[in-house]
Structures are given as structure tokens and as C-alpha cells.
Amino acid sequence: MLWFGMISMAMTFAGLTSAYVVSSTRADWLTSFTIPQAFYYSTLLILMSSASFFWAEKTLKQNQIQQAKAGLWLTLALAVSFTYTQFQGFGAIIDQGYYFTGPESSITTSFLYVLVLLHLTHLAAGMLVLLVVITKLYRGGYSADNSLGVELAVLFWHFLDFLWLYLFCFVLLYR
Fold first, then answer.
1. Alpha-carbon distance 56 to 74, whole Å?
2. Looking at residue 100, what is its pLDDT?
3. In sequence order, which ranges of 2-144 are alpha helices (DSSP H)?
4. Do residues 145 and 65 lie in contact, with contact meaning Cβ atoms separated by under 8 Å?
5. How many CB atoms lie within 10 A of CB 20?
6. pLDDT, tens digit, for every residue of 32-49?
7. Cβ contacts of 123 within 8 Å, gap of 6 or more
8. Cα(64)–Cα(80) distance, rounded to whole angstroms?
9. What pLDDT is recorded for position 87?
10. Looking at residue 112, what is its pLDDT?
């Protein structure tokens, strides 16, 4: 089911980025739009969160439960920081005078808002999964011999990381 969901999400974003490419031929498409620095920082944060989640999984499989807990909490903190920097990026876009809708909006920034907010929605689901994993670990539900839930959560998290990298590089490189 996880693979089915991830493939569906990938297809959704593939469709949106295809629409982005088609829309870029419009006369009102912004070609000088500056990607806010906050999105660069958020990219670093999400990469770090994947590393910390990987570390949590690795230490759990070595039965180092306290380190696994620390890795999971670090992953959650990095995810919250990622979300914060995403909203800082939106603030910077607004400071540049571009909005999601209305007379100050553009098709370019509207696409950016949709791509990022949809990714954040999926990240929120990933953060809920992370909270479930943390809770279950504290209740003794995971161990070195029983880590399937953590493995699935890590897989989904890495998928979200890859998805953000794809979106970021796509918007950065395709103008």
C-alpha cells in the first residue's frame, strides 16, 4: 500500500510539473523570479532529516533504543524547521510582491505555491507517521527484531525528501 501511495504521489507531482512546463510558454510567465533563500535552507534541513531518520533506524536495529529515540526526535525537529523555512520562503515571495491569488499573483508563483503546499501536506502526513513511530517506540513496540514500522516510515520519509529535491531542482533549473 505504501508503494501504491508513493507512486500515486509521484504521478500527481509529475502531472503538476508537466503543467508547469506547458504554462511556462504563456506570455505572463515570470522569467526573472528569484527563489527565496529560505527554500535553500529548507532543502538542507530535509536532507539532514533523512540522515537523522536513517540513523534512528540503524541504531534501533543495533538495539540502541535511546539513540533511536534521539534520532527520531531530531528528525521531528528538523521537519518542523523545514516547515518553518518553507513559510519563510512564502513570506519572501510575498515580500517580492507576488501572491497566490488576486491581482498581484502570477501563474508562476501560483504554481510554486501549489507545489510547495502539496508537498507540505504530504510532509504533515509524514510527521504524523513519525509521531506514531516515536509513540510506539516509547511503548516498547519496536526493537532490533521488530522494526518494520520504522523501516516503512523511513522509506516514506526518504521518498518525501526525494520529492522535495525533485521539486526544488525542477523549479530552480526550469525557468
1. 9
2. 79
3. 2-23, 37-61, 65-95, 107-138
4. no
5. 20
6. 778 899 999 999 999 999
7. 79, 82, 83, 160
8. 25
9. 92
10. 83
Between 39 and 111, the more confident residue is 39
Give exposure, 80-98, as e/b (b: 16+ Cβ within 10 Å): ebbbebbebbbebbeeeeb
Q: In the block, which residue shows the cell 533504543?
A: 65
Give me the torsion for CA of 31, 32, 33, 35, rounded to 10°.
110
Altogether, the residues listed in the chain come to a count of 175
pLDDT of residue 174: 81
Number of Cβ atoms within 10 Å of the Cβ of 157:
26
Q: Which residue has the cell 527565496?
A: 36
Nearest to 53 by CA among 163, 129, 1, 167: 129
pLDDT at 88: 96
Confidence of residue 80 (pLDDT cuts 50, 70, 90): very high
Instruction: Compute the distance between CA of residue 49 and CA of residue 162 in angstroms, rounded to an integer.
Output: 12
Do residues 38 and 86 make contact, with C-beta atoms less than 8 angstroms apart? Answer: yes
Maximum separation of any 2 CA atoms in the chain, in Å: 59
Kindly list the distances between the CA atom of residue 128 and the CA atoms of 26, 124, 131, in Å, as whole numbers in the listed order. Answer: 39, 6, 5
Q: Which domains does the chain have, with CATH numbers?
A: 2-6+39-173 (1.20.120.80)
